[in-house]
């Protein structure tokens, strides 16, 4: 089900009820870009520590925004049966009285989403506004001070026209006279009312319908009475609620403390923090602490499926849809009556008939479905048939305990980020060192292109003629050591810190020089002096 700004306020009470009664929530997002090209070397690398990767992701999240957020609400109707309501929320940064937000578009990401049928008109024209706590604080302060600022260039022209019209009208108007301003959008109606009230102490404004504002000439005393009325649509709290937009639903999700399920969800969590909670902190540890406070139970289906594929003959899946199709295959689940039943509600029934990859609501539905099917596989391997037949989501959570709060770490020095503890390192092949001979001015990219036909390595310069290679596959290391054993220009061997580290080599050279001078001083000091 698609939800834009026009429908969001109407849908919010029902969403509150469904989230409150849910077993868990599936989440997915689409963005205007992934990895910022503004910073060099911003791509994920096996050299990255979790803190270094976080800084890369943080820089990208600060530049890009969310175009679409998918939320799949899984409700446990009865034992082992789940009904799913899956929503597509089109989002667009709030332009209501806050500093104008700059957003970056990545050409490749825009092209990718266009290929899968993403509706950019809904994103731009009907995107639900949102803001984080810092932006809300600034807006609240401006409302308290009466210093309203129109940030939208489009609204600014409309407001200017409205001020000119009302200024001309009020000069001849009597108290009680009214004039109607027409053809205004929701945000324009609010901007017009706040600016007119701020500029003219003897007018009162009131919305009429969906696109009109009535302006009435009143006395200053009458104006004070109207301002204290509970029916005033421009009350501070009402304005803040409207400006928060999707952040209202985010706060409902946070308060509900339901398990949140995603797939490769580090980027999603960073955007949730930055867009709806607070700007991402510089400290990686503070980020982890904040996320765990907001979402005490996280489950990354990539972490789960990556771990169980060997034990359960789980074929490698390169993406979420492939993982879902493998788990649904008759080879893996041969008509198991105890397998969880997942039924799509009528407002999401289209996903039962047609695949919609990279549509956020569909991918959120896949996340939750992959979780249930993976948990069932784990339960089958650890309990008897009676327990399987009456399995509940609480049982699934118990069997998934070792995966909770561990978010997949793509190409890095750890396998996952643990939001409720220390990040555990993983076992990777040993690093290799390339010593270059007779190939001047060779750089990392040229070495990557040289090795690419054989395997994939991440490369970092060690010294003028040395480079370190890292791979996450042992077979790649073995292959390149074998094939480049007798190469005339590239000597590749296993990295040894004491032998290859420039710092160690420098220290040894300095120590050698110091030892040589000490020896020389000792010899000269012991030489016999010549008598006259």
Topology summary:
Elements lengths: L1 E2 L1 H16 L3 E8 L18 H14 L2 E13 L2 E10 L16 H9 L4 H6 L7 H13 L7 H18 L7 E4 L4 H14 L3 E6 L3 E6 L2 H8 L8 H9 L2 H10 L3 E3 L3 H12 L6 H11 L3 E3 H8 L11 H9 L12 E4 L5 H4 L6 H21 L4 H5 L3 H7 L6 E3 L7 E3 L13 E5 L7 H8 L6 E6 L2 E5 L3 H10 L6 E5 L2 H4 L1 H25 L6
Parallel strand pairs: 1-4, 2-8, 4-10, 8-9
Antiparallel strand pairs: 2-3, 3-4, 5-7, 6-7, 11-12, 13-15, 13-16, 14-15
Task: Give your account of this protein's structure.
Keywords: Endoplasmic reticulum, Exonuclease, Hydrolase, Magnesium, Membrane, Metal-binding, Nuclease, RNA-binding, Transmembrane, Transmembrane helix. Its cofactor is Mg(2+). This is Poly(A)-specific ribonuclease PNLDC1. Pfam families: CAF1. GO terms for molecular function: metal ion binding; poly(A)-specific ribonuclease activity; RNA binding. This protein is α/β, with parallel strands linked by helices and 532 residues long. The model has no long low-confidence stretch (mean pLDDT 87). Strands 1, 2, 3, 4, 8, 9 and 10 form a seven-stranded mixed sheet that branches. The chain has a four-stranded antiparallel sheet with strand order 14-15-13-16, covered by helices on one side. The chain is globular, with a radius of gyration of 31 Å. A hairpin with a 3-residue loop joins strand 6 and strand 7.
């Amino acid at each position: 089900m698609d939800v834009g700004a026009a429908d969001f306020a109407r849908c919010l009470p029902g969403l509150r009820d469904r989230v409150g009664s849910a077993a868990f929530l599936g989440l997915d997002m689409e963005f205007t870009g992934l990895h910022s090209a503004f910073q060099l070397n911003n791509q994920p690398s096996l050299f990255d520590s979790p803190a270094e990767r976080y800084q890369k992701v943080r820089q990208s999240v600060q530049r890009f925004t969310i175009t679409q957020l998918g939320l799949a609400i899984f409700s446990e109707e009865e034992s082992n049966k789940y009904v799913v309501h899956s929503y597509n929320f089109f989002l667009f940064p709030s332009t209501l009285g806050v500093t104008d937000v700059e957003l970056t578009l990545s050409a490749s990401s825009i092209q990718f989403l266009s290929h899968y049928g993403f509706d950019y008109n809904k994103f731009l024209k009907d995107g639900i506004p949102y803001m984080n706590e810092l932006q809300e604080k600034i807006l609240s302060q401006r409302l308290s001070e009466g210093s309203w600022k129109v940030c939208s260039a489009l609204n600014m022209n409309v407001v200017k026209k409205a001020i000119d019209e009302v200024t001309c009208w009020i000069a001849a108007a009597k108290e009680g006279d009214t004039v109607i301003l027409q053809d205004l959008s929701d945000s324009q109606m609010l901007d017009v009312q706040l600016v007119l009230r701020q500029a003219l102490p003897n007018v009162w404004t009131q919305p009429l319908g969906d696109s009109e504002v009535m302006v009435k000439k009143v006395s200053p005393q009458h104006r004070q009475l109207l301002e204290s009325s509970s029916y005033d649509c421009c009350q501070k709290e009402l304005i803040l609620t409207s400006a928060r937009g999707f952040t209202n639903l985010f706060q409902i999700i946070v308060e509900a403390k339901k398990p949140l399920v995603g797939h490769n969800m580090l980027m999603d969590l960073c955007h949730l923090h930055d867009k709806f909670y607070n700007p991402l902190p510089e400290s990686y540890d503070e980020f982890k602490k904040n996320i765990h406070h907001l979402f005490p139970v996280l489950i990354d289906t990539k972490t789960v499926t990556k771990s169980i594929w060997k034990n359960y003959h789980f074929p490698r899946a390169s993406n979420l849809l492939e993982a879902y199709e493998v788990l649904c295959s008759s080879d893996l689940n041969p008509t198991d009556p105890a397998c969880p039943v997942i039924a799509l509600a009528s407002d999401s029934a289209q996903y039962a008939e047609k695949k919609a990859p990279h549509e956020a609501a569909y991918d959120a539905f896949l996340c939750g479905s992959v979780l249930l099917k993976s948990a069932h596989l784990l339960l089958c391997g650890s309990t008897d048939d009676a327990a399987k037949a009456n399995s509940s989501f609480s049982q699934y959570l118990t069997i998934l305990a070792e995966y909770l709060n561990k978010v997949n770490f793509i190409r890095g020095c750890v396998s996952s980020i643990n939001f409720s503890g220390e990040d555990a390192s993983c076992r990777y092949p040993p690093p290799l060192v390339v010593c270059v001979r007779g190939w001047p001015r060779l750089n990392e990219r040229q070495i990557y292109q040289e090795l690419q036909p054989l395997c994939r390595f991440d490369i970092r310069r060690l010294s003028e003629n040395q480079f370190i290679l890292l791979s996450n596959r042992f077979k790649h290391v073995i292959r390149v050591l074998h094939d480049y054993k007798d190469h005339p220009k590239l000597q590749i061997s296993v990295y040894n810190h004491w032998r290859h580290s420039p710092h160690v080599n420098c220290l040894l050279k300095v120590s050698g020089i110091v030892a040589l001078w000490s020896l020389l001083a000792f010899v000269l000091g012991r030489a016999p002096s010549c008598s006259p």
